[in-house]
Structures are given as C-alpha cells and as structure tokens.
C-alpha cells in the first residue's frame, strides 16, 4: 500500500471510528429504551421495522445524492439528519409518546443511516483505486471492521454504564453530541477522490436513472442478484437478534434494570467484530472461493441461533452469542469484497445502496414478526425461529456461486468496467 492509499485508509478508519462510536452509544440499551417508554415487544420491534423501512424508502434517493452531489455531501447530511432524529427520539421518551410518533421518527432515523450506506464504502474503494492500490479489499474492509468493533465496544459499554448511572435517555444525548463533532471532522478530512459527481437538474428523473442503474448493474447481474436476494434474510435476522439479546440476557440475568449487562451484549458483538475483521483475510485464504466462506458462515450462524434458543444459562448464552457474532463478522468483509469486485466504479454507491435496501427490506418484515413471536412464545423460541430463517441465505449464495464470477476466486481487486457488467 503506497503513501496515498495509506492516507485514504487512515481517513476511512477515522470516519468509521467516530461514526460507529456515535451510533453505538444507544445500541446496548435501545430495546430497553423503547420498552421503558411503554411500548410492547411487538411495538418496539415494529419501531425498528419502521427504521428499516425508512432505509428502504430513502436508499435510492440518497444514492442520487451520493452519486450526483458527492459522497462527502452524503456523509455530512447523514450526520446532521441522524443527530436531529436521535434528539427527537429522546423527546418521545420524555413524553411517553404513542406508537405512531415512534414510527414516524424511526423512519427519519432510517433516512439518516441511508446517507452513509454505500457512500462511505464507495468513497473508499474509488479513492483506493485512484491512489494506485492493487491489493485485495478484504484486508482494508477487515481493518475497518476491527476499528468499527473497537468503537462499538467502547460506545455500547459506555452507553450501558451511563444509562445505569443516570437514565436511559442520556446515551441518546451523548450520541447527538458526537455526531455533531463528526460533521466537523468529516468536513475537514473527507474529499471526493477518484470520483466526479454528475449532478442532475431533475431529481425525479435522476432517481429513476439511479434505480435503473441499480437494477442493470445489480439485479440484472446474476451473481450479484443472488447475493442481494439473500440479504433480506441475513440482515433481518441480524437486526432482530442484536436488539432481542438485550431484554433476553437481562431476563436470564434476573435483573431487569442491569443496563450494563445489556451494554455487555453489544460489547461482545463489538469485540467479535474486531476478531472477525482480523480473521477475515485469514479465513478467505483457507478457501478457493469467497462463496464457500459465506455458505459456511450462514450454516454455523443458524445452528448457533437454534442452540441459543434452547439455552437457559446466562453465561452459556453469552458464549453462544460471542461465537455467533465472530462467525458473522468474519464473513462480512468477504461478502463486501465479493460484491465490490462485481460492480463498476461509476455506479458503486448506487448499487451498494440498493444492496443495503434489499437487506433492510427483510428487517421490515422479520423484526416485527419475530417480536410478535417473542410476545407469544418468549425470546428463546423467537431466536430459534431466527436460526431457521437464517438458513434461507444458503440457496441464494449457492445460486450466486454457480454463476462462476471471477470475483468469487479473486485475491485482489477485479472491479469490472461498465461494459463488462452490462447484461
């Protein structure tokens, strides 16, 4: 990695660190926060579903901003939007607002995150290519995931401790402050490199064009299409398990106000991200094809969730949670590298945002469904059901594997040109 590429990587890691730290202050207590506001399990996970619905609704329009106005502009808008909607969440908690208000603000939270999804990753890959970097993307994404894990570890533990020392609302205010600081930092550090935005005077026409480009360079490319179709199951399950573990572990622990224990659950996931990010390039080296890693990861994750659903011992549940998180985290950089090596630079943010949209669509349905399952059958049964849903990932990855894409066996970046990916 040359000096220019190292600089790009440092900026990426700095933005990842700050952004994840800001977001993670509430991750360990979010479900408890919603339940404390008077929502039922179904309503709490329905609020999360509206959050993911917001991501589905706004992924393409914010993709227009990222590709048409620049990835830096998209990031800056994300920090402001997420800070404002987080503060509104805090106000709803103070007022014990009825569910429709939670649904509306949750959609705004989803909007905030869509400004980040695709844009930051696209900024990194294009800037690395511009700098002359020719190495594999797994190592860079792995480092990013390790930094993200460290930030999540610190933020989620701090959020749980702060909530226990004060109340459940304070971590949300801390998040607002850090996001505003990230706006200033990104304004100073982040500049579009290796990419020239193409603005359109017709936003609706541009949105249609982006959607068309997403389909042409995503869904119409068979190996990419099948990975996208697998995303609703893996993402939906991931969202539910992460947030359900907070009340589930408190239930096993026996103290409903031990908020630091809920923070511990998020911290374990964060630590697993660090380990998984370090493991990713090593795991990739054990297999000739990237899809082998993805298939094995989905099967092991499903088995661990099934076992977790029948566990009644707190420490055993923590151990299973740790294994589940490590397995999922080790596969994530491999999945990112696989998809990035199959899409052209010009539509990178667009296609990545559309892939995120596909994943979020699963969360819209799976989260409230499993939340209802938790109301009726309890958290253990809902986790076992999540394990069954996770298995639906496997046939789609197998279908992608059968297409024989060069990206499946690539060791370094093989990003195609637009012509090479045209149907």
What does this structure look like?
With 423 residues, the chain is mostly helical. It is built from 17 helices and no strands. Helix 3 packs antiparallel against helix 14 and helix 4 runs antiparallel to helix 6. The longest helix has 32 residues. The radius of gyration is 20 Å and the shape is globular.
What share of the residues does DSSP label as strand, in percent?
under 5%
Based on CA atoms alone, the radius of gyration comes out at: 20 Å
Report the helical percentage: over 70%
Average pLDDT value?
85
Shape: globular
Which regions have little confidence, pLDDT < 50, spanning 5+ residues? 413-423
Major beta-sheet overview: none
Distance between the termini: 34 Å
Total number of helices = 17
Tell me the layout of helices and strands.
Layout: H1 3-24, H2 30-36, H3 41-68, H4 71-95, H5 99-114, H6 119-130, H7 137-165, H8 170-189, H9 203-219, H10 222-253, H11 259-286, H12 290-308, H13 314-340, H14 348-377, H15 379-390, H16 393-401, H17 418-421
Helix pairs in contact: 1-6, 1-7, 1-8, 3-4, 3-5, 3-9, 3-14, 4-5, 4-6, 4-8, 6-14, 7-11, 7-13, 9-14, 10-11, 10-13, 10-14, 10-15, 10-16, 11-13, 12-13, 12-15, 12-16, 14-15
């Amino acid at each position: 990695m040359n000096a220019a590429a190292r600089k790009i990587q440092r900026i990426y890691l700095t933005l990842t660190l700050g952004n994840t730290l800001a977001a993670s202050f509430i991750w360990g207590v979010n479900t408890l926060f919603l339940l404390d506001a008077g929502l039922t399990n179904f309503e709490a996970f329905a609020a999360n579903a509206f959050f993911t619905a917001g991501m589905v609704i706004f992924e393409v329009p914010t993709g227009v901003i990222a590709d048409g106005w620049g990835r830096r502009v998209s990031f800056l808008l994300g920090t402001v939007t997420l800070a404002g909607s987080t503060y509104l969440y805090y106000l709803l908690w103070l007022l014990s607002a009825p569910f429709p208000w939670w649904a509306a603000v949750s959609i705004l939270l989803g909007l905030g995150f869509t400004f980040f999804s695709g844009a930051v990753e696209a900024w990194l890959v294009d800037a690395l290519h511009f700098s002359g970097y020719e190495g594999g993307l797994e190592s860079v994404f792995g480092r990013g995931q390790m930094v993200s894990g460290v930030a999540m570890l610190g933020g989620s533990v701090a959020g749980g401790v702060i909530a226990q020392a004060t109340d459940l609302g304070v971590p949300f205010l801390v998040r607002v402050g850090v996001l505003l600081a990230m706006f200033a930092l990104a304004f100073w550090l982040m500049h579009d490199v290796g990419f020239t935005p193409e603005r359109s005077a017709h936003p609706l026409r541009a949105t249609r064009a982006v959607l068309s480009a997403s389909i042409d360079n995503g869904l119409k490319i068979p190996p990419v299409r099948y990975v996208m179709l697998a995303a609703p199951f893996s993402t939906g399950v991931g969202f539910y398990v992460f947030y359900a573990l907070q009340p589930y572990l408190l239930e096993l622990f026996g103290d409903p106000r031990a908020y630091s224990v809920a923070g511990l659950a998020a911290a374990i996931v964060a630590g697993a991200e660090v380990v998984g990010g370090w493991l990713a390039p090593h795991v990739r080296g054990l297999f000739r094809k990237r899809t082998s890693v993805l298939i094995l990861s989905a099967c092991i994750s499903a088995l661990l969730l099934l076992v977790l659903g029948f566990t009644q011992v707190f420490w055993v549940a923590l151990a299973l949670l740790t294994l589940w998180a490590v397995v999922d985290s080790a596969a994530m950089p491999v999945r990112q590298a696989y998809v990035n090596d199959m899409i052209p630079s010009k539509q990178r943010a667009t296609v990545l945002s559309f892939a995120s949209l596909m994943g979020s669509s699963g969360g819209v349905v799976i989260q409230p469904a499993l939340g209802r399952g938790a109301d009726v059958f309890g958290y253990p049964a809902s986790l076992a059901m999540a394990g069954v849903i996770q298995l639906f990932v496997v046939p789609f990855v197998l279908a992608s594997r059968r297409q024989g894409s060069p990206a499946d066996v690539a060791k370094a970046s093989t990003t195609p040109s637009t012509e090479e990916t045209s149907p």
